[in-house]
Amino acid sequence: MRTQLALTVLSVGLLAACGDPATPSGNAGSRPTPPATSLTITVSATAKATPQRWTLTCDPTGGTLPTAADACAFVAKNPATVLYPVPGHQTCSMIFGGPQVATVQGTWRGKPIDARLARTNGCEVARWNTLKPLVGDGGA
Predict the structure, then answer these.
(1) What pLDDT does 47 receive?
(2) Phi, psi values for residue 32, rounded to 5°
(3) What is the value of pTM for the model shown?
(4) CB 64 within 8 Å of CB 84
(5) Predicted local confidence at residue 35, as pLDDT
(6) For residue 60, is the peptide bond before it cis, meaning its omega torsion is within 30 degrees of 0?
């Protein structure tokens, strides 16, 4: 009986010494590391113009995007679905917003992203405007 009690106490002590496996450092008070955001953003004034290319990382904020802090705040507040294409069945006004094109590729809070944007109709213009913290005005 004493041997069984001693083994139980030893097992509990070893488990307690291991810490919380859900945290990287094993400290129960540590916050988990947020999913990574690492994006490459390419914007061109026209389909044939030389594109501008920036990088963006969040948590911590970094990269070459001039508005990185604003862009990371936008990423933190929005799910990756904000980059999804306009559904094909959606009715959109035929208002041309300009020749600008952009791509956003990489990971958004841990989710893979490969988005293409243009300003070809009212829905796409609205999508571009939503993503302005990332793509700017595209020279519009």
Answers:
(1) 76
(2) -65, 150
(3) 0.73
(4) no
(5) 75
(6) yes
